[in-house]
């Protein structure tokens, strides 16, 4: 895989793998050059909420939650702004019109990537319906050779 240039938005599942520091997270980091990119990776403020809700549900202690906070602080966090709202409205309308179900949080994350003209990096196929039309998506497979 060639490391894509330009800005990237990380889906929540990607940040969780990076926070866990597991082999998959290290492969993700290496594949996209996340620590060496000229632009720091971005996330949506919605992702921040999802991350800390996940940590709370899973009973992460202070040390692990602190490491998560450190990771989040290394990323560029985009709050919801007018451009993101406009993209959210367009994406949400498209998905409803096409009969596709995507969670609202994923729509906000997609809207953040679209508004920032960034590649969305994810580990799932939730964003396939939007690829090429609203944004560019790169799905990093948990198991190489499978998508």
Structure characterization notes:
The chain is mostly helical and 147 residues long. 49% of the residues lie in helices and 12% in strands. It has helices at 12-20, 23-32, 45-57, 62-73, 82-97, 104-115, and strands at residues 8-10, 42-44, 76-78, 119-122, 136-139. Helix 1 packs across helix 2 (23-32) and helix 5 (82-97) packs across helix 6 (104-115). The model has no long low-confidence stretch (mean pLDDT 92).
Précis, in short:
The chain has 147 residues and is mainly α. 49% of the residues lie in helices and 12% in strands. The longest helix is centred in the middle third of the chain and has 16 residues, at 82-97.
Helix amount: 40-55%
Radius of gyration: 15 Å
What order do the helices and strands follow? EHHEHHEHHEE
Distance between the termini: 14 Å
Instruction: Indicate the low-confidence ranges by residue numbers.
Output: none
SS class? mainly alpha
**Count of distinct strands:** 5
Residue fraction in strands: 5-15%
Any key phrases for this structure?
49% helix, globular, mainly alpha, 147 residues, 3-stranded parallel β-sheet
Topology:
Layout: E1 8-10, H1 12-20, H2 23-32, E2 42-44, H3 45-57, H4 62-73, E3 76-78, H5 82-97, H6 104-115, E4 119-122, E5 136-139
Parallel strand pairs: 1-4, 2-3, 4-5
Helix pairs in contact: 1-2, 1-4, 3-4, 5-6
């Amino acid at each position: 895989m060639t490391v894509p240039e330009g800005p990237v938005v990380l889906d929540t599942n990607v940040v969780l793998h990076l926070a866990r520091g597991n082999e998959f997270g290290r492969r993700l980091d290496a594949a996209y050059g996340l620590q060496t990119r000229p632009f720091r990776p971005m996330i949506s403020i919605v992702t921040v909420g999802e991350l800390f809700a996940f940590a709370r549900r899973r009973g992460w202690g202070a040390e692990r939650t602190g490491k998560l906070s450190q990771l989040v602080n290394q990323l560029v966090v985009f709050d919801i702004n007018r451009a993101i709202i406009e993209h959210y409205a367009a994406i949400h309308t498209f998905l409803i019109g096409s009969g596709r179900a995507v969670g609202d949080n994923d729509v906000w994350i997609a809207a953040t990537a679209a508004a920032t003209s960034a590649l969305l990096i994810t580990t799932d196929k939730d964003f396939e319906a939007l690829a090429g039309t609203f944004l560019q998506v790169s799905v990093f497979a948990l198991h190489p050779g499978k998508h």
